[in-house]
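Example record for the data management plan.
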Amino acid sequence: MTPFAVLLSNLEISEEQWKILSSISYVGCGLSAFFSASTVLSFMFIRIARAEVSSSIHVSLSGALFLLNISFMLSEWTATLGMDGFCVFIAVMIHYSLLSCFTWMAIEALHLYLLLIRVFNIYIRHYMVKLSLVGWGVPAIVVGALLSVYKTKSFYGKNEMTLSDTNKTNAICWIKEPSVLYGVNLSYFTVIFLFNLGILITVSRQIFKLRHVGSMHGKMPVWKDAGTVLGLMSLMGTTWGLAFFSIGFTNYVILYLFCIFNSMQGFYIFLWMCGTMRKNRAQTAQSKTKSSVDISK
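Corresponding structural encoding:
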């Protein structure tokens, strides 16, 4: 099995730590894949879930996470089959879905900025279509550019990961060149991470300002604000930034946190969607009750 952190780091860890981190990663990816699929199905069959553009963005991110989790869990098994073409396909799917996840995280941040900061004049024609072209199209361009030189230089395929204490190797289907791993993945994510972090800080400040105003009237519990910020962190993928603390050296605490938080991101988004739909139902019921009272008067 393979630790989830290999997506952004070239790991040099012991065999024991590899097995533990791999087990955490596969349990997390299995849960994430299941709940990501549940999020997509909920969006398809529950009418209230399709009422907002925000839900469509959440579902697109969940779809990208589902592809990432499934293709990641197939990476090591595929490497043992000895089918180079299939191994390249799985590696390409992992890379494409990973970059799609990052792009949709940036779109989550952009939409949140338009929704909460620029409250007025935010109408954009064919908004969701344009977001989808960016969310799915930009990663396709990046991966396509790497595949365009496949005959002269193959960046995807079977990659042998060496364990630090036994010199044994674990073969996975992934990017074979560290320069591409860091030069493309880490650079791509760094730009998105800085953008999302800036939006998160701005939105968090707005939330705490509202809390200060609400606290004067005895409202706005602290735990709700904390839950909102944690939910936004999951949507924007800020926990992926833990990868910056494991570059150049091995930090097991960071690796464990990275695998726990990021392999289960689809599960956290499912919880966020459930909370959002529950809130929408409550608001709809409240507005109907208020309308009935007004009519009766």
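Summary line stored alongside the record: The domain at 4-276 is CATH 1.20.1070.10 (Rhopdopsin 7-helix transmembrane proteins).
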